[in-house]
Design goal:
Elements lengths: L2 H17 L5 E4 L14 H9 L3 E5 L10 H6 L3 E3 L1 H5 L3 E3 L6 H4 L7 E4 L8 H9 L2 E4 L15 H15 L8 E5 L2 H13 L3 E5 L1 H5 L10 E4 L16 H7 L5 E4 L23 E3 L2 E4 L9 H22 L6 H4 L2 E2 L2 H7 L1
Parallel strand pairs: 1-2, 1-4, 2-3, 4-5, 5-6, 7-8, 7-9, 9-10, 10-12
Antiparallel strand pairs: 6-13, 11-12
Length: 342
């Protein structure tokens, strides 16, 4: 970053710190899912913060899963602390959602930045409201074109397709891959499958309504449909009975979207995790990982870190209430900040 830009940012940050809180601290905490080795901020991005005069604390061993020792963060200007101290920070950062028990460790009025997906799991908003914590929903921050800004769709598609091929009884060049849905995820999966030599078919909305005609002959079925909230738990694209009747034994379903239990457009899909990411229903393999990018934790950590740090800087430089609409729309329970500080 050019020196004159850094000077402007430092001035903005100093002014903001006087108005919001006497001492603003960014706290990087470790992920909490089994086998999840990703970290939200690398030492390189932490240094971007500390160079601007932003204090950063790191939960001990937070970056160990991707090869970053505590000393790497110390060199970047951060302080290593225990878990409880890290959760007392003004702005707590992690990829996966903060659990209710972890919210208990936070100070009312402070900010939790993570993937919340609160519309699909309303209890997460209720928990934030009860604990007077502000959520910054990483999955709702957008770019200048209104698209998700913190979204590793290419890595999601790549890792999902890799596992799909591993589960399949057939070589990639022998597979017929059928995709449900369009968008970035479908494009990524289609590109990967085509390069692997598979026959690739994208099913449109009309064909999805006639799904029984299209399930036979499918080796790998890939779900890329962002199923609308109003349809979740009420409507299905594919039922269990249809899978039993029309899909070949040993074929594979790869769910790249992964809705909460009972909300998928495919009746037999349920969320899985990195340490236990496949199961069989009706003789068909399923893999529906919450956290597809994290199969490649080093690459995921690099990409997440680069995407997240500019939004942290904006929140601190401008103040939580003065950020752009692309971040404001990602706030969950911003009222907690008003109650405590304004």
């Amino acid at each position: 970053m050019k020196e004159w830009r850094q000077r402007i940012l430092r001035k903005q940050i100093r002014s903001f710190l006087k108005n919001w809180k006497e001492r603003t601290i960014v706290g990087l905490v470790a992920e909490n899912r089994p086998s999840d080795r990703v970290v939200a901020l690398r030492p390189k991005e932490i240094k971007r913060l500390t160079d601007l005069g932003i204090e950063a604390v790191i939960e001990t061993n937070a970056g160990k899963g991707v090869g970053f020792d505590d000393k790497d963060y110390i060199v970047a200007g951060a302080t290593i602390v225990d878990r409880l101290t890290a959760y007392k920070s003004s702005l707590v950062v992690r990829i996966n959602e903060i659990s209710r028990n972890e919210l208990e460790m936070m100070i009312p009025g402070n900010i939790s930045m993570s993937m919340l997906h609160h519309e699909g799991v309303p209890q997460r908003k209720i928990d934030l409201e009860e604990k007077l914590i502000v959520g910054v929903e990483l999955d709702s921050i957008t770019d200048d074109f209104g698209k998700r800004a913190v979204y590793l769709w290419e890595l999601t598609a790549e890792n999902g397709m890799k596992l799909g091929y591993q589960l399949s009884e057939r070589k990639p060049e022998e597979c017929v891959v059928k995709l449900l849905g369009y968008g970035n995820l479908a494009r990524g999966a289609m590109t990967y499958a085509a390069r692997a030599g598979s026959d690739v078919i994208v099913l449109n909305k009309k064909q999805m309504k006639e799904i029984e005609k299209h399930l036979p002959g499918t080796d790998i079925l890939v779900n890329c449909v962002n199923w609308p909230l109003e349809k979740r738990g009420k409507e299905l694209i594919i039922t269990r009975e249809q899978i039993r009747k029309f899909m070949r034994q040993g074929s594979v379903i790869v769910d790249l979207v992964v809705n909460p239990l009972g909300d998928s457009p495919i009746e037999t899909c349920r969320p899985t995790f990195l340490d236990n990411n496949q199961y069989q229903e009706e003789g068909v393999w399923h893999t529906c990982c919450w956290g597809w990018p994290n199969y490649d934790p080093e690459k995921a950590s690099e990409m997440y870190s680069k995407l997240i740090v500019p939004h942290i800087i904006e929140i601190i430089a401008k103040g939580p209430l003065n950020v752009g609409e692309n971040i404001k729309r990602a706030y969950v329970n911003i009222e907690a900040l008003n109650k405590i500080y304004y």
